[in-house]
Design brief:
Radius of gyration: 15 Å
Number of strands: 5
Shape: globular
CATH class: Alpha Beta
Number of domains: 1
Oligomer: single chain
Structural class: alpha/beta
Number of helices: 5
CATH architecture: 3-Layer(aba) Sandwich
Distance between the termini: 60 Å
């Protein structure tokens, strides 16, 4: 019996601090990919300009030969992946990087950290 080992990315995904997100949104120089499902977005809202590609569809969205290919992946990025807490988006960023997508990073702490930062800043 052959034991399959999971593929592990040897690359490190750069973490973008939530404190930089407002300037990233204003400058509009990143493709922001939100990998949460629709429930998560309805519950927490979304980052302005973010494109929703749920985590369970990310591999198909990246695959140029798949019917679900998302043309956002035709350009050179940079891509900022985000989710609720930063874990699923990190895994999505690894998947993207392993499939040849360049200039990939992850929102450190995710959407929750950004909400906390913006809520704290307005109090």
């Amino acid at each position: 019996m052959k034991i399959l080992k999971p593929k592990i990315s040897k690359e490190i995904i750069r973490q973008v601090p939530v404190s930089k997100l407002d300037s990233i949104i204003a400058e509009n120089n990143y493709n922001i990919i939100d990998v949460r499902d629709q429930k998560g977005i309805e519950k927490q809202g979304s980052i302005p300009g973010a494109i929703n590609i749920p985590f369970d569809t990310i591999e198909r969205a990246i695959d140029k030969n798949h019917d679900d290919f998302n043309p956002i992946f035709k350009n050179d990025g940079p891509y900022l992946f985000c989710c609720t807490g930063g874990v699923m988006s990190y895994m999505a960023a690894i998947k993207a990087q392993e499939r040849g997508i360049k200039n990939v990073c992850n929102l450190d702490g995710g959407h929750s950290a950004w909400l906390k930062l913006t809520t704290t800043a307005t109090i």
